[in-house]
Amino acid sequence: MTRISRALISVSDKTGVAGFARELAALGIELISTGGTAGVLREAGLSVTDVSDITGFPEIMDGRVKTLHPAVHGALLGRRDIDAAVMGQHGIRPIDLLVINLYPFEATVARQGASREEAIENIDIGGPAMIRAAAKNHAFVAVVVDPADYPAILAELRDRNVTVGEDTRRRLARKAFAHTACYDATIWHHLEMTEGDGALPERLPVALRKHEDLRYGENPHQRAALYRQPGRRPGSLLGAEQHQGKPLSFNNIADADAAIECARALPAPACVIVKHANPCGVGVGTTLAEGYEKAYATDPESAFGGVIACNAEVDGDLARTISARQFLEVITAPSFTAEALAAFARKPNVRVLGLGPLGDPAAPALRLQQVEGGVLVQDKDAATVTFDQLRVVSQRAPTPRELEDALFAWRVIRFVKSNAIIYCRDGATLGVGAGQMSRVMSARIAAWKAAEAKLDIRGAAMASDAFFPFRDGIDAAAAHGIAVVIQPGGSMRDAEVIAAADAHGMAMIFTGVRHFRH
Q: Which of 195, 197, 227, 233 is CA-nearest to residue 213?
């Protein structure tokens, strides 16, 4: 077992480094350092050898070159048994402990107004090279990239006569390789998002950092954690301020994310209630309270235990109404008044999340879905349609009110699991049919749900996320008095489907855009 006699310390994140180095020095470990880290250690009263004294070469190019030298990399890579002779021949003394983390690239590019030049200068070169060298040679070298590991490393050094055990060195090496892999992936992600040509890349590096462990996954026997991607995510769960309530569960997160995505795409003020990743009620009003009333009225039964997302500030009156009326797991909004927070505080188990501004619903992003042995990757479904893109295919054109209802339904339908059918009127969902194997069954279920909620769907708009393969869905809607249908079109039986609409006196609009959601 190699006794730790020399440590090279070079960190951007200087959290706790002076105290850690002081303890290393107290154990008789020689300290070597670079630039700003050396200055911090000297200010703490520690004796430090500059890397330039080891290499015999000064830092050059504004610090771009300082550790890329055989005296450093030979000291990290040298195998203490078979490389001892060559190390002695070239005067290379081993480095047994590397304490290092990298230039803050992610923090730099996340800052508003950061320039391309700043981003480039925060790409670390020497740091990853040293980390990889030490991790490769973990049989003899311990590499520490995370300040959170300092206490455990010190405890082991004290307990093991200033050595680090093999299991620990292996664990640290795995963590080190993950550190450099995520670092490079973060750089790639930024450059791809800011300078890419828009094509899906041949290789897709993914940098994920654990945000938090979860109690369990979809079911109690499944392990789970939430990981975050690099970059800023305005108005997302990962940047939310949780005002109260227990930690979010796996299912809470999935439902809340679906609810926020739908709320973000709607004009404010709007309210979305989600249950099992499907909107069970959506409402837009002149006030947020009106939006909530519309959303709740769609399906009060399913709203029980649901997740609510609002796209405007929640006030005290609305908070009291929600708290008195329904059991809910999570509520999210850009902000909450002090009165609203006080009202929810009476229901301490409700998770209350302030998101800040919700951001641009059309902002580009990639969606990843794991399959056995691989990952499906696609663009986020942010497609919208304009009035110019709509095509009235029926004999009867929709009235202005019917057109408004149809467009609202079309905004909502892309957040409902396929096969999806919804009925809407006056900025409110009236019936939602989701996730059925048959589109006509979704149409029937949406009507049944409306009837259960005592909502009249006569004269309402019907939206379908994909084309109707047969006329039976139109016949089912007509039986309930639906006035206008909005759908992508494109079926081999479009003529038959249009003829059904004409036979029932319904207006029909084609969008030319499909919104499957699996």
A: 227
